[in-house]
Design brief:
Layout (H helix, E strand, L loop, with lengths): L3 E4 L13 H19 L6 H9 L6 E4 L14 E8 L2 H8 L1 H4 L7 H13 L5 H6 L5 E8 L7 E9 L5 E12 L7 E7 L8 H6 L12 H18 L7 H11 L3 H21 L5 H15 L8 E6 L2 E5 L1 H7 L5 E7 L5 E8 L5 E12 L2 E2 L1 H10 L8 E2 L2 E8 L1 H7 L2
Parallel strand pairs: 3-4, 6-8
Antiparallel strand pairs: 1-2, 4-5, 5-6, 7-15, 8-9, 10-11, 11-12, 12-15, 13-14
Helix pairs in contact: 1-2, 1-5, 8-9, 10-11, 11-12
Length: 414
Amino acid sequence: MRFTEFKLVQRQQQLNEGYTAGDLAETVWGAAVAAAFAKYPAASNEQDIISVISNLDNSLTWTQNPSRPDGLEGKLTDRVIFTNSINMDAHKADLANITKSIAKIKKQLPGIIADANAQVKSAGLDLKDIFANGKADQIVVGAEGGADQKGTKVDVSIVHKDAEGKQEVKRLGYSLKTDTGGSGVMPVSQAPGLNKGSGGQVDFFKGLGIEGELGEPSIEDNESLEDKMRQYVDANASDGKLDSVYEKELRAMRRTSSVGTLFTKNVEIAADQINSQIDTDGEEAAFLNDIVKFFQTHINKEQEGLKLLTFDAKGSYTTTVEKFAENVRNITLRADAVADSSGVKKLLVKARDEDGTESLIVEIRLKFSGGRFSGSKYRAALKKNKNDLPSGYELLRYTIVISTGPGYKKSATN
């Protein structure tokens, strides 16, 4: 093999969610897989990961001329390319200081490295033949770091030409998550809680097979609430600050949102309908099909065979919707509508064992963000319009968050 190339590709768009240790873990795992391909049959280690990330040049490309331990060398160029899409400045800063920042995922690191090496060894192609056959092959490891719950994944694509020149392409898709808290409840996807043209609550619950009098929040009602809250912030903010007593009142105003009250109503309808289907002969199978389709949409993103790879302090585990589909008919399910700390109800679908023990399959909740005073927005507004009274109001945002639990792990682990 003549050279190995690692390339880091940046994207400038902003994220919907903040940078997390899970985003760093995606980059580290991708670098570990790339290094494992380059070093094959030797395993990659922590120093290899640091070397891949820290030795990127100004063009964000690293080229090396490895001396392979097995003595094999292709007559033409075999390339391993590592691409990582980065959105957040904090993520970029961690990569620039990877020697220290890798400590943020210290507990998960052994599992990340072990899994990366295992993925290479089980890639499904004979890597000795790939590197030694005199054909130009390419292995691409692509990671989307910090792309929120909508698209957090790493793809490994192996493009190989055999001795006769016939090209073979093998793609391995992964969605990576990091369970830093060890709870076993993992956010896997999200959807809009207010329909602004890309779907809303009615479409979301219909995707779970729910029918009936589902409610859709009004854009006009939300805009009216936004105006009221903005005026409240502008009237009470002083010197770029908002006293805590006013913040408390803002939270109370936010709880009056029709987005939350209708979500509660829709969750109650969903729980009743799911339990009715489960308890009715001939209808249970329909719901089981619906929940599998729901996971195919929100976990797989309609990509067949996608693996959900989760790292925790104990190591790593891989789940697939296909494995869940195999086992779901052996599970007794129940649904509950339970109020969270904001008073808005969330939907819990649980597996129930014969002894009555329950374990969470999926949690569906509404997340509020914004609808508050933001010092940074106030300063930005002040800088932009020095002659006008700045507003530090941050717009309300509503996100439906889908999380899997220990019951899903048990039923979907390969």
